[in-house]
Amino acid sequence: MKARTTMKAETLSVEGLTVHYGGVCAVRDVSFEVPAGEAVGVIGANGAGKTSTLKAVMGLVPRQAGALRFGDLDLSKVAARDMVRHGVGYVPEGRHVFAGLSVEKNLLLGAYAKPWKAATRQTLGEMYELFPVLGEMRGRLAGALSGGQQQMLAIGRALMSRPRLLLLDEPSMGLSPKLISEILVVLQRLRAEGLSMLLVEQNAKLTFEATSTCLVVENGIVAMTGPVSKLRHDPRVRRIYLGL
Amino acid sequence: MRIKIAVVAGLGVLAWLLPYTIDSYAIHVVNVIIIFALLAVGLGLAMGVAGQVNLAQVAFFGVGAYATAILTTRAGLGFWFAAVLAIVITVVIGLLVGTPALRVQSHYLGIVTLGLALAFTNWVTNAQIAGGAEGISAIPAPELPGVDLSSEYLFYYLELIVFALALAFGLFVVRTGLGRRMRAMRDDSLAAGALGAEVPLLRMTAFLLASVYGGVAGVLYAGLIRFVAPESFGIANMFLLLGMVIIGGRQSLIGCVTGAVALYLVRELLSDHPTYAQIGYGAVVVLVVVFAPTGLAGIPPRLRALRRSSGTAARLQPFQAYETDVSSDDATILAIDGISKHFRGLKALDDVSLSVATGEIRGIVGPNGSGKTTLFNVISGLYKPTAGRVEFGGRDMTNVTPYRLSRAGLSRTFQNLRLFGDLTVRENVLVALDRSRTLDSWQYVLAPWLVSARDRRLRAEAGAVLDRFGLVEFAGQAPKALPYGIQRRVEIARAVAARPGLLLLDEPAAGLNGEEVRQLGEMVRSIRDSGVTVVLIEHNMGLVMSLCEKVTVLAGGRIIAEGTPAHVAATPAVIEAYLGDVMEIPTEATR
Amino acid sequence: MQVTLQTIIGGISLGAVYALVALGFSLVYRTMGLVNFAHGNVVTVGAYLASTFYLSTKLPFALAMIVAIAVTGVIGLVIERVLRPLENKDFDLMLIGTIGFGIVLDALIIMIWGATGRAVPSPVAGAPIELFGLRIRTYDLVVLAIAALATVLLVLFLSRTKRGAAMQAVAMDHEAATAVGINVGRSNAIAFMVGAGLAALAGGLVGPLLYVSPTLGGALGIKGFAAAILGGFGSIPGAVVGGLAIGVLDSFAAGHFQGYSELVTFLVFTAIIMIRPTGVFGERTVNRA
């Protein structure tokens, strides 16, 4: 993909984010920032509130927040379906491709908010360049792809809208180490191109490779935060999340 | 309790005195209302309690009425003998109509039952014996020595007694083991099956109950009106009945009765404008599903919940360890031999063999998608393996249904928690504790005292289980409102309540914090010490390392390592597959 | 042989109508995951509207149909809007909600048009065509042609347009659909509107074939639903094949069992569903624990 030179300096800032599900508090008073062009990771155990955090930023679950801004824009007023129009792409947990539609339709739907014209065709070409396997499979039903291919498709679909911020929910889920390293290569490439990313992961090692700053979420609150270089040497993180 | 008895007695007296206060038309209306209330109770049992979308209830009603009419007028039988035969015929038809429920559910079952109901009206409209479109008139009134049942006033008392008995029986079923099991099946048929509920039999029981109530209502209708015609049993009345049950609240039999009374009265008040009445109750059905999905019956609990929300919060108590039972022998409790499971070409499990010794705690680890849960599903009978054999307790248990496995001593929890959401925590445990067979449900009719005695015993046992797991303060709450960690504990308590020999735990530590994981470890160890073999799938390597004697590692549907935790952790293939090459932490210099 | 062929031909035009009803069911199911039990009642509304415009206001048949389709489309929008709070939450409750709407529509039909029915004369004149000794009514050919055209248009809409793809995406995963910017509520509204339009098309076409009465849609709705399930619920070709199959089955049953045809049709349908619950084109889904 071409370098994103026209990018505005937009920081995602989240302050005091809280999510309730029917009386149960899944996320409590979480605050963080994703500076423009940076990649931030969120690690934690299953059910710790990582996915809820991401979905709340996206507006897919009811949220309360002190402040939720993307650059100058107040995101707390933006409906989930309009996030993509403000430059926020989303890769859901468990991939969630449109299983009964072809690979190409899936990608085109990623650009649903834009007219399906020449520019979109060009982006489609770029996706096939970034993920050659999707090009080979363009006519296949997305549901017939392997887990790794579906993950590529889910990322590709989100990139089709040419987002300035990408939210990724557990892209490593259920993938073999070889595929995880392929995903990592893609993430690192996107980061090098200046795309801002918020990566939620159980796989701490992948997250540490792909991001520069990380939050550790436990029981719905931020237990720890800091640059990856520091967290990597934290004895608690090493024991619980790296299994060392 | 005393208030309840007083209310019931008061209602009884009022009902007994009612005929003295109303004219002959009103008593006719009341008589018809009682018949609809009976039908509504039957539909409530099938649809609200057991979750079976039965749109043939009005046809059961018709079968009962027509059978009575035909047997009395055509075969010349006496009313009572004809009535008994009619109910038997209705039950047979009911069971036949219910058979598709063994294969299909939800809207599929709805259309099949609706179609069969139409088939019934089609038959009576055409059959000579059923009088065609004109129907059958001059059905003899039921005769009872000294009582003239052709008087609607006296017929009322007959109906009242039958109705009171039928309602009491329905409530008895709902509040004891059978009803609990049906409600569990409604909330989650998979989990109910895994806890020993014979799902196919329960579905048929639901249709059996619905048809008994339909048949009785039909007999009473034939005796009351003494004329049957096809239009009384058509789709319009089916939807009226459905409206009664939905508006009243399908999960509560009292609600169903209330709905029947209310809706019929509205229809009667607007009898000069039947179409307005129809618009009215159609609109109410829509409004109820959108704004009050639990119907009229759901309103009082909602109000109570509003009032109580500021009460003191229930607290989780510590788990109390079991007595140690060290009578374990070294026999093999579970032996899996060459199991493969393919989904449309995807090999989820590929020639997996392993055996677990009695009294062991076995860990199964592996990357997401490596086939761990599929393996559990094969062992617990949810999936049929493509190839291979499962031996449990020394017997071949391949392709055995989940409920049989449960009864043979296998119990499990689910990765995504499958608690019965509309049952209380206590009832969740009771479903598991109740090891009686659904086939023994004849006791409900012939020996109800045995049923109540068993239920009392089970309640005492449930109290003990809840106490042991520190859940007493949550006993009366619905699990879906509880925090995740407590729901996890409820599910384990429920699985153990089934008194298994082998317990399968699917990611029991998922979503738990450090302290909760520590408690879980203690709990599992104590459960094992009480004589239960435990196999657990887990990602939390710390827990696996400290808890398991032996660990099996799956990757890509195959076993890649097996042995003590320390041995497995050092196996290169495991590091490669599970820990992975990206997992190697590069030093800062390589970046 | 000749008799058999004649029976099949007799069943096909009604089968085409069943197919249209089934398409409406399948479209709503495919794009929303919902079974619309009011669909049959919408068919009746469509039949009455089309026949009213055709008979009373003397509009040409085609124009009367278009007006009827537009009006029922609005009814579809209303149903979707009222039940929207239940969307993606409680499938069974929503199903009962549509039954409630069916009850209301039924009453409205009787209020507006009365309880008695009406006969609609065939809009195409001309004697039946004789072909190899078989008699084919011209209007049957019209019905077949329109049903085929509607099917082709629907397939093209779903497979070739952005909106069609988006509507299917909504049923497959409403959250992912939201994330790519699709307005799920609007997509569902359109699905309901098109579904209701198909119902009106079926109702309008069936007018000259059958007697238009308040109970018309009940029978058509149930058979159309049966057709959709028989073909594999949610599958467009399945709806067509299922519709034609039910039509032919109906025709055979009427020929051999006279008044008992409905009984036979539903018994056969039940047997088929028990043998193959997923229908002809249906896919088996994996039960996840």
- What is the third-level CATH name, the topology of chain A? Rossmann fold
Measured between the Cα atoms of the first and last residue of chain A, the distance is 38 Å
Give me the count of strands of chain A: 10
The percent range for strand residues of chain C is under 5%
Largest sheet of chain C: 2 strands, antiparallel
Compute the CA-based radius of gyration of chain A.
Answer: 17 Å
Q: Report the radius of gyration of chain C as a whole number of Å.
A: 19 Å
Instruction: Name the average pLDDT of chain A.
Output: 85
Helix/strand-derived category of chain C reads: mainly alpha
* Morphology call of chain C: globular
Largest interface: B-C, 50 and 49 residues
CATH class of chain C: Mainly Alpha
Count of domain modules of chain A? 1
In short:
Chain C: It is a multi-pass membrane protein. By secondary structure, chain A is α/β, with parallel strands linked by helices. Chain A contains 10 helices and 10 strands.
What does this molecule look like?
- Chain C: This is Branched-chain amino acid ABC transporter permease.
- Chain C: It is a multi-pass membrane protein.
- Chain C: It is found in: Cell membrane.
- The complex is a heterotrimer of chains A (244), B (591) and C (289).
- Chain A is of the alpha/beta class and 244 residues long.
- Chain A has ten helices and ten strands.
- In chain A, strands 6-7-8-3-9-10 form a six-stranded mixed beta sheet, with helices on both faces. In chain A, strands 2-1-4-5 form a four-stranded antiparallel beta sheet, covered by helices on one side.
- Chain B is α/β, with parallel strands linked by helices and 591 residues long.
- Chain B folds into two domains: 23-235, no CATH class; 332-584, P-loop containing nucleotide triphosphate hydrolases (Rossmann fold), CATH 3.40.50.300.
- Chain B contains 23 helices and twelve strands.
- In chain B, the strands form three sheets. In chain B, strands 8-9-10-5-11-12 form a six-stranded mixed beta sheet, sandwiched between helices.
- In chain B, helix 3 crosses helix 9 (199-225), helix 10 packs across helix 12 and helix 11 (253-269) runs antiparallel to helix 12.
- The termini of chain B are far apart.
- Mean pLDDT of chain B is 87; it is low at 580-591.
- By secondary structure, chain C is mainly alpha-helical.
- Chain C contains eleven helices and two strands; from the N terminus they run ααααββααααααα.
- Chain C has helices at 2-32, 39-55, 61-83, 91-113, 138-160, 162-172, 174-179, 184-206, 216-231, 236-257, 261-275; strands at 129-131, 134-136.
- Chain C has a two-stranded antiparallel sheet with strand order 1-2.
- In chain C, helix 1 (2-32) packs across helix 9 and helix 1 (2-32) packs antiparallel against helix 10.
- The chains are: A alpha/beta (244), B alpha/beta (591), C mainly alpha (289).
- The A-C interface holds A 58, 60, 80-85, 89-90, 92, 96-101, 105, 108-110, 112-113, 116, 157-158, 161 and C 162, 165-166, 168-169, 172-173, 175-184.
